[in-house]
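chain below, 225 aa
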Amino acid sequence: MKIVVLSGAGISAESGLPTFRGAGGLWNGVRAETLATPEAFADDPQRVLDFYNFRRAMVRDAEPNAAHRAVAALEQRHQVTVVTQNVDNLHERAGSTDVLHVHGEIMTARSSRTPSLKLAMQDRDIRLGDLAEDGAQLRPDVVWFGETVRHIDDSLDRIRAADRFLVVGTSLQVWPVADWVHHAVNAGERVIVAPELARCPDGFDWLRGNACEHVPRVAERWLDA
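prediction:
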């Protein structure tokens, strides 16, 4: 059985990583243009690097939770793809092996000139003067506002082919990813786990609550499917 899991910040919030738009989120009181755009980086690279170094340290200290582990456990019997809006590596650390990071990966740096030139930064900060192979300043390998979301075609192909589709931890307010849920037309079961939504997508069972509460139950049931 082919399973696709679309995850957002809410699943990692239960590991202590703050969301962007919820109460107490990272963006509350901060204009995105000051921290997460190419223009912000060009204007004040030190401020942007400090913010992402802080976030990288938080990811290093966080641990995968029961929801991450339940998603990974589905690979025991099924073909599982995780399409995640999260830039952390908690899915991989829980054991998931096929993860598409559509918004990039915070544990990696890339050249500010040549996106394909990358460097793992697991235990390091990115500092001014840290250069890529092309001589350009390193920056976080994340998708900033105004930049193109990654893995669009691969993600949509997997979602369209899915037999089961689980959406967890996302507000469905970030585009274009929010629209992708409507492509799971072949999935025999579509489930969304979220404490609150403006509107539940048509054809989905909405489990109101936290990821660690509901995802292990869904995964246990699907393991036997």
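The chain has two domains: 1-16+64-103+149-225, 18-61+106-142. The mean pLDDT is 92.
thats it, cya
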